[in-house]
Amino acid sequence: MAQSTSALPEGQSKVIRRVVKKMISSKVVLNGTGKNSTLEIVSKMPKRKAIFLSRLGPSTTVNDITNYLNSLKLQYLQFNRFNTKFQSYAFFHIEVYECDPSANIR
């Protein structure tokens, strides 16, 4: 502890302490048991893999990519076409399940 005597009458001292901020958890935790049987637990969602596909012709559409990848018979397939700075190429974001054996696209 540091002591300081500035701006105090002679013979008196004031103790200065460091302020410690306590971390407050923002998570709400519920503990206990309940008798409500209407609640249902769902299984964990499979992890997804992101694939970024670019340098395609500007006229390439989402339907073109879908038709090309339909032969893989993926369980989950989601597409997004991004707007690009230049209109000379197309850029896509594709999501598939990581556990899908057909998703090993390299």
Can you walk through the features of this model?
With 106 residues, the chain is mainly β. The protein has a domain at 47-103. It is 8% helix and 27% strand. The protein is built from one helix and five strands. The strands form two sheets. Strands 3-5-4 form a three-stranded antiparallel beta sheet, with no helix packed on it. The protein has a two-stranded antiparallel sheet with strand order 1-2. Strand 4 (77-82) and strand 5 form a beta hairpin. The model has no long low-confidence stretch (mean pLDDT 81).
Describe the structure concisely for a colleague.
The chain has 106 residues and is mainly β.
Per-chain topology:
Layout: E1 2-4, E2 14-16, E3 48-56, H1 62-69, E4 77-82, E5 90-97
Antiparallel strand pairs: 1-2, 3-5, 4-5
- Order of strands, main sheet, comes to 3-5-4
Task: Give the structural class.
Answer: mainly beta
Overall geometry = elongated
In terms of quaternary structure, the protein is single chain
Mean pLDDT: 81
**DSSP strand count:** 5
Succession of helices and strands: EEEHEE
* Amount of helix: under 10%
- What's the total helix number? 1
Largest sheet: 3 strands, antiparallel
Radius of gyration: 30 Å
Termini separation (Å)?
Answer: 62 Å
Poorly predicted runs are: none
**Strand composition percent:** 25-35%
Quick tags:
single chain, 106 residues, mainly beta, three-stranded antiparallel sheet, two-stranded antiparallel ribbon, 1 helix, 5 strands, 8% helix, elongated
